[in-house]
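quick q for whoever's on today - can somebody do inverse folding on this one?? i tried earlier but teh output was garbage lol. tokens:
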């Protein structure tokens, strides 16, 4: 049955999912959220996927590799199973998960991401997101980008790369 209703999407910077899984379970058991994006899950290969799965939601995760700055970051996306999901891509280089989902008869693209607050990764991150936006543009009319991008939009100089990206793709920051 196609999903009908007002779409409810939430983002939490969780700072370690292991210690907060009961709170997430409580939120998802209420089934008030259609999509929940978690940033800074701080999971790794040792964390069993089954511990983070819930019956009414599909779960996708992208852990940060244990290199350089060590464990940290990571994202997880919970999508209500009623939303028909396709074209799921989990980026191997950046903490990005993208997909298409269907709601109210239209297809929407979603890019869930986390960009660590290190200036040296800006170009790689924006190149990856630009490629994903270009791919999703061919598949859907609307795209939602959600995540912690670690930019201070009150500082034009420090956020110039993000502001240029928003302008170049006709996006709106909310």
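ok took a stab at it. sequence:
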């Amino acid at each position: 049955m196609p999903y009908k209703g007002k779409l409810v999407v939430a983002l939490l910077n969780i700072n370690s999912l292991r210690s907060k899984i009961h709170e997430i379970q409580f939120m998802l058991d209420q089934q008030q959220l259609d999509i929940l994006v978690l940033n800074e899950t701080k999971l790794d290969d040792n964390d069993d996927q089954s511990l983070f799965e819930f019956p009414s939601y599909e779960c996708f995760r992208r852990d940060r590799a244990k290199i350089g700055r060590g464990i940290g970051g990571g994202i997880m996306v919970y999508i209500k199973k009623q939303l028909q999901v396709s074209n799921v891509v989990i980026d191997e280089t950046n903490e990005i998960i993208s997909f298409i989902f269907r709601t109210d008869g239209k297809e929407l693209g979603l890019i869930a991401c986390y960009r660590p607050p290190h200036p040296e990764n800006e170009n790689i991150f924006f190149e990856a997101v630009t490629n994903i936006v270009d791919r999703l543009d061919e598949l859907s009319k609307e795209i939602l980008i959600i995540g912690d991008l670690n930019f201070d939009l009150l500082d034009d100089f420090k956020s110039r790369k993000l502001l240029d990206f928003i302008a170049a793709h006709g996006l709106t920051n909310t």
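fwiw The CA atoms of residues 31 and 120 lie 39 Å apart. also The mean pLDDT is 91. so keep that in mind when u check it
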